[in-house]
Specification:
By secondary structure, this protein is mainly α. The chain is 77% helix and 0% strand. It has 29 helices and no strands. Helix 7 runs parallel beside helix 9 and helix 11 packs antiparallel against helix 12. The longest helix is centred in the last third of the chain and has 23 residues. It is elongated, with a radius of gyration of 30 Å. The N terminus and C terminus are likely disordered.
């Protein structure tokens, strides 16, 4: 039966018999075809269209039918060729000379074409085209609720994907027009946009407004899983804003109710993973983070998997499970998810994604002892900084990565590049204690590298070593005075041990012990920087009583 239908469609292609076109577009016809067969039809129609698209003698009716056909094909097959062909045919129509009905049809059709392209490439130029054509369409027919719905939906998606507050405000404005008209999930999108607005614009009143709206909606339709999803989103953003566990717990309760109604709603699984991850981070609950990974995996079977930020959040949950070499599998999984996120946004890369991707690569380089990962991490961070030149954490991380590369290559130029990164970060934020800690650590390493020549060190090199250690002390003490990165105390203990200042070495080593920032004692004993300290009675007594605790995160 399917084969006869395919033959029927192919006959339409070859003859251009548009009297039979409606049979092709009929949704009941599509149901009987596989996805592969739909794609075959789309490709075949695109080939036919290419033969006639430049024909100036096509009638208006034929052009419109081709345009609508390819718009329908693009929705069914997700073929870029189809939507681009639809645009070609729509743009053949000089709408200024047409009546308002045709003008509206063409503008709404073109708007939907660019909605599709934005979802594929996330280019702002496609979003600008959406706004251009939908502005015309709503001017011609302001009562067309479908246009307002598509417009508000795509602006809300753009606000999430591109992290753009202007798009979010515009989405709220458009969705407000039709949120009470029962169009799609307009009301759920509206309250979700309000909640996100409350979080990024630091306006907690938006949470209250959104919650009241969704509560009233649930009184009318208590079994609507999409509304329960929206309620969970409100709880998520409120919890993020106030850093309160109760909101995450409330959100999870809404999710569980929603999943009982519809276990196939990908958004519910996604928000479940986000809520579980946030709650797990606050409770330091590893088991709950692993549950979050299961939720993300369930969401991946839905259209949520088309969104880059979904993969980023999944990767972040994986990365947060990494506590040591035993978690190599989670590091690899985080790398895979971050790569998926970045690849899905080839046209619009988020600096934060590159930053965490680089952090994961650096971890892999250490765990698998593969220098190439440090090189890839440096490249990712360089791109992140090129996109966002004021990304302080990226400068600090790049400095640390350059330090690793210097150690692998024995090239002092990378130490110098690392120091420049820390200097830049300090200009951007003079009170970032972690940057000063990393800066000091790199200076110690640089000095140790220059000292490796043993007794044959030239006087000017000895002078540089002393200067590097003096600067390391200054940077580490600055870090400590600013609230103290935990690492600074251990690094200071190492520095003073190397300089033979045992009193200060003991003092800062004990601070590191008190803060829970010590590796296993057998690793501490092997640290060559602590050789002088390890010979003291203090250290011998500590070894007998020391019970390591996990570092405070």
């Amino acid at each position: 039966m399917k084969q006869s239908k395919l033959a029927f469609f192919e006959n339409i292609i070859s003859t251009g018999d548009f009297d039979k076109l409606n049979a092709f577009i009929d949704p009941r016809t599509w149901i009987s075809l596989s996805h592969e067969e739909k794609i075959r039809m789309g490709e075949a129609f695109a080939l036919q269209a290419n033969r006639i698209k430049d024909d100036e003698n096509l009638s208006l009716e034929t052009i419109l039918k081709y345009a609508k056909l390819f718009l329908e094909l693009s929705c069914e097959t997700e073929l870029i060729d189809c939507v681009e062909t639809a645009i070609i045919f729509y743009k053949k129509i000089q709408i200024e000379s047409m009546d308002k009905e045709i003008q509206h049809e063409v503008c709404s059709g073109l708007g939907l074409c660019y909605v599709f392209l934005f979802k594929c490439f996330y280019k702002s130029e496609h979003l600008d085209a959406v706004s251009h054509f939908y502005t015309k369409a709503t001017t011609l027919k302001p009562e067309d609720a479908t246009i307002w719905y598509y417009w508000g939906s795509i602006l809300f998606l753009a606000a999430r994907v591109l992290e753009n507050e202007d798009y979010l405000r515009a989405a709220i404005e458009k969705l407000a027009v039709i949120r009470n008209e029962g169009i799609g999930n307009a009301e759920a999108l509206y309250v979700g946009a309000l909640a996100l607005s409350g979080f990024i614009e630091e306006n907690p009143d938006q949470f209250t407004i959104a919650e009241k709206i969704v509560q009233r909606a649930l009184e009318k339709t208590p079994t609507d899983p999409v509304l329960l999803f929206a309620y969970a989103e409100i709880c998520y953003y409120r919890g993020m804003y106030f850093e309160e566990e109760s909101s995450f717990v409330q959100g999870l309760e809404k999710v569980e109710r929603g999943l009982k109604l519809d276990k196939n709603l990908g958004g519910l699984w996604h928000i479940r993973g986000r809520l579980q991850h946030c709650l797990a981070e606050r409770r330091d609950d590893r088991a709950l983070t692993i549950e979050a990974l299961s939720s993300f995996k369930a969401a991946a079977a839905s259209s949520v998997a088309d969104l880059g930020y979904f993969w980023f959040e999944w990767g972040l949950a994986c990365y947060c499970l990494v506590r040591g070499p035993q978690d190599l599998l989670y590091v690899r999984e985080a790398k895979e998810k971050f790569e998926h996120a970045i690849e899905s946004h080839e046209e619009v890369i988020m600096p934060e994604w590159l930053y965490f991707y680089a952090e994961t690569l650096d971890s892999l380089a250490i765990l698998e002892e593969k220098f190439e990962y440090h090189q890839e991490a440096a490249q990712a961070l360089e791109v992140a900084i090129a996109i966002y030149p004021e990304y302080i954490q990226a400068f600090t991380s790049l400095g640390s990565t350059y330090q690793h590369i210097a150690g692998w290559t024995s090239d002092p130029a990378y130490y110098e590049k690392a120091l420049l990164c820390y200097q830049e970060a300090a200009k951007l934020d003079p009170e970032d204690y972690f940057n000063y800690s990393e800066w000091g650590h790199t200076l110690i390493n640089y000095a140790a590298f220059l000292e490796d020549d043993g007794e044959n060190i030239e006087p000017h090199v000895l002078t540089k070593i002393d200067a590097l250690r003096l600067e390391a002390e200054q940077q580490l003490l600055t870090s400590y005075s600013l609230g103290g990165a935990m690492q600074a105390t251990y690094h200071l203990a190492c520095l003073y041990s190397m300089k033979g200042n045992i009193s200060d070495a003991v003092s800062y080593f004990q601070k590191a012990v008190d803060m829970g920032y010590l590796p296993a004692m057998d690793q501490v004993e092997k640290d060559p920087w602590l050789e002088n300290l390890s010979k003291t009675q203090y250290f011998q007594n500590l070894k007998k009583s020391y019970s390591p605790s996990p570092p405070k995160r």
